[in-house]
Fold:
Amino acid sequence: MALPTLSAIDYIVLVILLLSSVVIGGIFGFGKSKTVSAQEYLLAGGGMHVFPTALSIMVSFISAISVLGTPNEVYMSGTMFWYQAAAWSIAPVVVAFIFMPKFREMKFTSIYEYLEKRFDRSVRICVSVTFSIYMFFYMALALYAPSLALSQ
Structure:
């Protein structure tokens, strides 16, 4: 049995994708020669438009787990998956129009900053550590799942 390999078009698409990412990073990173503060650097001075910001956030949540797992989830649970898809479609709208205006009004940069102001520093640290542990295991799984699929 012949092993599947990437064709020339696959390599071309991969190179174009990587180069476009480098060019976009270069434009935003080196395009402005003035010295910027950490606040301006991390939040783009509040000047990023909605579409690139939303696209960046959306893409950061899509991983090989989603690509490999969604067809299996639909196969296993049938149309019940659409309830989850509907929730994932409605939740960002609720966050964007209800929570984000309040966060911008209070000038918070993260949920952790809000938790510290609302409760205290120990709550912020506890939630930060919990999220870090969660992400540690999630990233391990996100790297393992495609490698397992590719090894088959």
In short: The chain has seven helices and no strands.
